[in-house]
Specification:
With 71 residues, this protein is α+β, with helices and mostly antiparallel strands. Helix content is 21%, strand content 8%. It has a two-stranded parallel sheet. β1, α1 and β2 form a beta-alpha-beta unit. The longest helix is centred in the C-terminal third of the chain and has 15 residues.
């Protein structure tokens, strides 16, 4: 999944999740996107499931890029 092979510090603190994004919440470089409607943590499995679900829709017509934006 989406995980580096080696990191300097094993455990990271997540910090605060305050409010919604004002800018950068529209899909500009791709045909499809995943949009979070409320503040939440997305796991690598959720992002991968969305990418796999989008792949048949796009089929041979283009690329599937992963970009997650807040609503």
């Amino acid at each position: 999944m989406l995980m580096p092979k080696k990191v300097k510090y094993r455990k990271q603190q997540r910090g605060r999740m305050a409010g919604k994004a004002w800018r950068g919440s529209d899909v500009s470089f791709r045909d499809f996107g995943l949009k979070a409607l409320e503040p939440c943590w997305l796991t690598d499995r959720q992002i991968e499931a969305a990418r796999v679900a989008m792949a048949p829709v796009v089929a041979r017509g283009g690329k599937v890029g992963v970009g997650v934006f807040a609503a």
